[in-house]
Fold this protein.
Amino acid sequence: MNTLSHTQIHFPNSARRWIGISAILGAVFAMAELPLYFVVPACDPAVCGVETGSPMPDGLILTRTLFNFLALTLFLVFMTGVRFLIARADARYEWFGTVAGTAGVAWTIIDMVAKGLEGGSAIKATEMIDPTRTVPTYLLYGSISHLMLFVFGLAFGYAVLRTQALPRWVGWSSFAVAVLHLAGVPSMFFGYNSSEFYASNGWGAVAMFNGIAALWLAAVGIAILRRRPAATAR
């Protein structure tokens, strides 16, 4: 029966740099995208109700969709490296790294599909629309994404604290991110008025929560780049 004779695996430093840089650049595009959700043309409240929202130009919708695609693609690269960061520090906790990375990849794909449907609806529409209201993808980028980020934060935080693959503040703050997104899951019961804080597509439960996660991922990326990898097996 084969067993592990050591608790570290080889992991090139160049890959570590790619993982860290991907998290930082992903956050840059994510933060560039967020303000575009609030820069919309003025609309008569009598016309722009809950059903229609504030119609906006296709160019605005597609620009923020592109930023979202770029951000999530870079975050996907980061998430695929989580398992290896953990396993390199201590292979006994590789499973937790795998859970974290898998949940993170699922989040990027689910959110990208949701934003792709919004962008596609804007392309097809014959008049200006507000895709945050008229395209029913609220659960994809809302509660489902919150659940994936909850699982990621929980598994990643535990793995970091047990292996010391990154500074301890990364592990504890990962738990905080997990709790934040767990708190966002019930937003599915509070309608779809995006101008409300805690709606299923609300500016708080979606935009603010995801913005915090993006900034945190950037901080994790910096920690990865600054961390000096161990030279010998434990």
User: Anything to note?
Assistant: Residues 13-38+52-226 form one domain. The chain is about 65% helix and 0% strand. The chain has one domain: 13-38+52-226.
